[in-house]
């Protein structure tokens, strides 16, 4: 793993100069953030040694290096999902690579189904905490001591300091920002209505098929995390309508602009 990370790092450093403190994982519909970076340089995942390649629809597979609100950032255009068949180590490979490149802050975004019945489609939820319901953990196996401790604390996984900055940015922009707990499942089937009722009792406000592994690996490596969910649909059984992946992607595309502005303003305050 460490040799593979070194190979990827060496390749990137040969292609682009970056002083990025912040990396951003772009969920469905947020590609435009990377396209609007100043002085952008793009590197395809497939050209980066050992970098796993994503196959999900609506997800490109490249890293974008450039400036957002005057700050150097790295964007992941296209993330990796467990349901694609990637192993846990592959999903967190980019996070560890960011650490090697000097990143201190990770902004994660995702599309999610709203479990909280007060949430509307198109809302943005600031993630306050998560429930990892995937049944596994990316840190299982020999601990990589060079990144972090065997038993990392998750009490403040979504850094309160960064959440305050996001709330200030939302207020400045007049964006209504919801807050809540994200529950991460593997997918790829959407949930049953009974699962959604159970998740609500467990304390979840939104559900999605990503994010929890990346956040666990980031916290392990001492990277501060800020997370946003774009509510692309009401979770199964709430509206009585059936769910479709195409609809999730479409809402993501339509509502992604608001989240893009919020991220841009938040990055400016970091
Ligand atoms: N469930 C799981 N993942 C999702 C959903 C959902 O309702 N919407 C967007 N991603």
Entry keywords:
270 residues, Rossmann fold, globular, single chain, 9 strands, binds hypoxanthine, alpha/beta, five-stranded mixed β-barrel
Number of helices: 7
Supply Rg: 17 Å
Structural class: alpha/beta
Order of helices and strands: HEHEEEHEEHEHEHEH
Low-confidence stretches: none
Order of neighbouring strands in the sheet with most strands: 5-8-7-6-9
CATH class: Alpha Beta
How many beta-strand runs? 9
Describe the structure.
Helix 1 (2-15) packs across helix 3 and helix 3 (88-100) crosses helix 6. This protein has helices at residues 2-15, 31-35, 88-100, 160-173, 193-202, 212-220, 245-269; strands at residues 22-26, 38-44, 62-68, 71-77, 105-114, 124-132, 177-184, 206-208, 224-234. Helix 4 links the parallel strand 6 (124-132) and strand 7 (177-184). It has seven helices and nine strands; from the N terminus they run αβαβββαββαβαβαβα. Helices cover 33% and strands 25% of the residues. Strands 5-8-7-6-9 form a five-stranded mixed β-barrel. By secondary structure, it is of the alpha/beta class. It has one domain (2-269): Rossmann fold (3-Layer(aba) Sandwich). The structure holds hypoxanthine. Hypoxanthine (HPA) is lined by residues 111-113, 190-191, 207-209, 232-233, 235, 243, 248.
């Amino acid at each position: 793993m460490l040799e593979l990370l070194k190979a990827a790092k060496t390749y990137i450093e040969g292609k682009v100069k970056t002083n990025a403190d912040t990396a951003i994982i772009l969920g469905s519909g947020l590609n435009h953030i990377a396209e609007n970076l100043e002085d952008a340089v793009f590197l395809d995942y497939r050209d980066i040694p050992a970098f796993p390649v994503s196959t999900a629809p609506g997800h490109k597979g490249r890293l974008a290096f450039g400036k957002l609100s005057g700050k150097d950032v790295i964007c992941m255009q296209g993330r990796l999902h467990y349901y694609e068949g990637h192993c846990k180590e592959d999903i967190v490979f980019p996070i560890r690579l960011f650490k090697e490149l000097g990143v201190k802050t990770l902004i994660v975004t995702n599309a999610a189904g709203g479990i909280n019945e007060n949430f509307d489609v198109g809302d943005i939820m600031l993630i306050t905490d998560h429930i990892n319901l995937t049944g596994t953990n990316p840190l299982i196996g020999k601990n990589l001591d060079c990144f972090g401790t065997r038993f990392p604390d998750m009490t403040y996984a979504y850094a309160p300091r960064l959440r305050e900055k996001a709330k200030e940015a939302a207020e400045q922009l007049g964006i209504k920002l919801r807050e809540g707990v994200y529950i991460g499942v593997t997918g790829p089937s959407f949930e049953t209505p009974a699962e959604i009722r159970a998740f609500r009792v467990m304390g979840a406000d939104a559900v999605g098929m990503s994010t929890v592994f990346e956040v666990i690996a980031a916290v392990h490596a001492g990277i501060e995390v800020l997370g946003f969910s774009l509510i692309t649909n009401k979770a199964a059984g709430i509206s009585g309508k059936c769910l479709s992946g195409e609809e999730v992607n479409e809402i993501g595309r339509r509502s992604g602009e608001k989240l893009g502005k919020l991220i841009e303003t938040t990055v400016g305050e970091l």
